[in-house]
Design a protein that fits this description.
- The complex is a heterodimer of chains A (about 160) and B (about 240).
- With about 160 residues, chain A is of the alpha/beta class.
- Helices cover about 30% and strands about 30% of the residues of chain A.
- Chain A has one domain: 3-Layer(aba) Sandwich (Rossmann fold).
- Chain A has 6 helices and 7 strands, in the order βαβααβαβββαβα.
- In chain A, helix 5 links the parallel strand 6 and strand 7 (about 145-150).
- Chain A is globular and about 40 Å long.
- Chain B has a 6-stranded parallel β-sheet, with helices on both faces.
- In chain B, helix 1 (about 15-25) packs across helix 5 (about 130-160) and helix 5 runs antiparallel to helix 6.
- Chain B is globular.
- The chains are: A alpha/beta (about 160), B alpha/beta (about 240).
- At the A-B interface, helix 2, helix 4, strand 4, strand 5 and helix 5 of A face helix 3, helix 4 and helix 7 of B.
Chain lengths: ~160, ~240
């Protein structure tokens, strides 16, 4: 299953929908994570906040390929995208194991094939390096076998590259 | 000299970031102000304090390998604030994560450094701390142990009339020493960073952790989450299943 998570305008979703099986629109119309661990220990894979991200982890968790289209923000994901990532940690479980010689949570939906991140907007060389490192870290943490980061000047270019 | 410490945890009570902010504050000289950052309404009080601050210490948890989204949103506003007001304070960062390895905060540290370059403020480094949740629990355990010690001490006086119970005191000090040992790496680096903040100098990036072997830490973390899931009911609601 190919899933796209993007922070582009809603018009892009129509076109992107033809290129994937599911879309998560990061439009910012949802609350940030409260850090309660409820999606692990109270209602597994479900956030207590009743908005559009309440069960979003169930979509991201099933992705063999996850494509993230995000604006650059200091070498990491835009606030809208990061909000979705924070609210979807239910893709993992509270139990911990060693993965690549580090402590990580076990994966509720098992391993994934590819994490592809398409970054658009103004970005410095230092921020590019941070982004590449960040995505590698995410890939290990979320159990992706492979990760890829591509940089574009505009959102339209990033959209075309999917 | 004025330092503004910002506790960026979204939790209202008992957060590891609040604990670390309090610890760091203890080693700072001059005027110290601690503010919470949980939502947009907290921006103005933080910015008000930053107008005449020499240093800013951000204490935050690691979420999905980076800053939590409410902190990202704050950084965007802070960049505009610093540029508009032509302010150039020093930024220090105390990041904590639930995993044992403090080095897992490296990506977050790089993001903070990039933010400083954009905002025109001085990146002075930080401390990345592994096992933040468990370190936070050690302070709660310490408070409970201290309370139990005093209760037992008073009962001892009533029962025996003796004011010095060396056995009880020894047991208390032994437990307190063990908790201090677990925290000693964090204390060392916070003292070191506190010294840098006081001198307005660069501290550099350092990583530390709760001083426990990782396999014991993982075992304790798994027991902790199992018990928490038992009491919260998640254990009976498809705890580890695909949903």
């Amino acid at each position: 299953m190919k899933v796209i998570l993007h922070d582009l305008d809603w018009q892009y979703s129509q076109r992107l929908l033809t290129k994937c099986d599911a879309i998560v629109e990061a439009d910012g119309k949802y609350a940030p994570c409260k850090g309660c661990f409820g999606c692990w220990v109270k209602h597994p894979a479900e956030c207590f906040i009743k908005d559009k991200l309440q069960t979003a982890c169930r979509i991201l968790g099933r992705a063999d390929q996850l494509v993230i289209i995000t604006k650059n923000l200091y070498g990491t994901y835009s606030t809208k995208i990061k909000n979705v990532m924070d609210r979807t940690i239910g893709t993992s479980t509270p139990l911990c194991v060693y993965r690549q010689r580090e402590m990580h949570h076990t994966l509720r939906y098992g391993k994934h094939a590819l994490l592809k991140v398409l970054v658009y907007g103004d970005i410095t060389e230092r921020e590019k390096a941070t982004f590449i490192y960040m995505v590698k870290r995410n890939a290990v943490n979320d159990g992706y076998n492979k990760s890829e980061v591509l940089f574009f000047h505009s959102a339209a270019e990033a959209e075309r590259a999917v | 000299m004025k330092t503004v410490l910002v506790n960026c945890s979204p939790k209202k009570r008992f957060s590891a970031s609040a604990y670390l902010a309090a610890l760091q504050s203890f080693f700072l000289k001059g005027k110290k102000v601690t503010k919470n950052l949980r939502s947009k309404k907290d921006y103005t009080p933080v910015f008000e304090q930053l107008k005449d601050a020499d240093s800013l210490v951000l204490c935050l948890p690691l979420y999905a390998d980076g800053p939590p989204s409410h902190v990202s949103a704050f950084l965007e506003e802070a960049e505009l604030f610093f540029l508009k007001n032509n302010l150039h304070p020093n930024l220090y960062c105390i990041a904590n994560n639930g995993f044992i390895e403090g080095r897992q905060n490296e990506a977050l540290m790089q993001v903070m450094e990039n933010f400083c370059h954009r905002a025109g403020i001085n990146w002075c480094g930080g401390v990345g701390i592994g096992g933040g949740v468990m370190l936070n629990i050690t302070r709660i355990v310490f408070v409970i142990q201290t309370a139990i010690f005093f209760i037992q001490y008073i009962i001892g006086i009533i029962q025996t009339g003796l004011f010095l119970n060396t056995g009880l005191l020894y047991a208390f000090l032994q437990n307190a020493g063990l908790l201090l040992f677990f925290n000693s790496g964090v204390l060392f680096f916070l003292i070191r960073m506190g010294s840098a903040v006081n001198k307005c100098s660069v501290s550099g990036k350092h990583y530390t952790r709760i001083l426990l072997p990782s396999f014991i830490f993982i075992l304790i973390a798994n027991i902790f989450f199992t018990l928490l899931s038992l009491f919260q009911g998640g254990l009976f609601r498809g705890w580890l299943k695909k949903k």
